[in-house]
Amino acid sequence: MLTLVAGGVVFPGLFLLSKNTLQRLPQLRWEEADAVIVSARLVSSVQAVMASTAGYIVSTSCKHIIDDQHWLSSAYTQFAVPYFIYDIYAMFLCHWHKHQVKGHGGDEGEARAPGSTWAVARGYLHKEFLMVLHHAVMVLVCFPLSVVWRQGKGDYFLGCLLMAEVSTPFVCLGKILIQYKQQHTLLHKVNGALMLLSFLCCRVLLFPYLYWAYGRHAGLPLLAVPLALPAHVNLGAALLLAPQLYWFFLICRGACRLFWPRGSPPPSPAPARE
Fold first, then answer.
1. Which UniProt keywords are listed (predicted)?
2. Would you list the DSSP string of 40-106?
């Protein structure tokens, strides 16, 4: 319970501290919209670094991938639960401020009509439905399963899953650079390449690796592992992998637009030697 309370204090507190600092520092004096958006990305990046660090410690400490335990696996899982609840609200705040900046809901900067908050909320749920669903599943399904259902087994796999957050800081930085129209910079291109590589390795290829690791432990070839596991385990893995594949597709599409802008086709292959 103490770790849950700590998470409920740390993540919203860090957001408020960052937002107020960006707004009040004499050298910065950012507008609230900019401060909210950057602060939300900062908190997500901090959580990602903490989660991936905890995951690395857990996974490298567990020599036996089924029976070995590490206190961080349970402690950090509980600590991170409030983050997912907070982040749903933080994403809504970002959407709200982007809505204001773009002038949606009113003509020529006019005030929005009463009740437009519901329109913004509907737009937010429509745009971020998959992410909100992902966060809700993490809190309502994955948290109880990892704390109760596992019964202290499989800390190694949980540690590996926590390391999926390695890609999040690159995703957050990319969104900030796009928000401030820095797509032309070298930083954006380097970050885009790192984001693509880290997302592929830590979120997409993670699941085949976990199957391979279990197969190595059980003395099974990779293709035989799904048949040896209970159906609900395979279903859970498929449901976790599905959104990662969708987001990876979006990242690949964005990378194509970044490195091969519309109007300049990809470089043609070198002509074959005669």
1. Membrane, Transmembrane, Transmembrane helix
2. HHHHHHHHHHHHHHHHHHHHHH-SSTTT---HHHHHHHHHHHHHHHHHHHHHHHHHHHHHHHHTTTS
The per-residue pLDDT for range 99-156, each reduced to its tens digit, is 776 554 443 344 444 447 788 888 888 888 989 999 999 999 888 888 778 878 899 9
Measure Cα distances from 191 to 45, 62, 184, 260, 272 in Å.
Answer: 14, 32, 12, 16, 34
Same domain, 175 and 239: yes
The alpha carbon of residue 149 and the mean position of all alpha carbons in its chain are separated, in whole angstroms, by 24
- 224 and 215 Cβ atoms separated by less than 8 Å: yes
| Pair 226, 244 in one domain | yes
Quick check: is 52 in a domain?
yes
The per-residue pLDDT for range 194-211, each reduced to its tens digit, is 999 999 999 999 999 999
Range of the domain at 221: 168-256
Exposed / middle / buried, residue 245 (Cβ in 10 Å: 0-12, 13-18, 19+): exposed
DSSP-assigned letters across all residues of 149-182 = ITTT--HHHHHHHHGGGGGHHHHHHHHHHHHTT-
229 shares its domain with 240 = yes
Q: Is the pLDDT of residue 17 over 50?
A: yes
The kind and range of the H/E element at 258 are helix 231-259
Mean model confidence pLDDT for the chain: 86
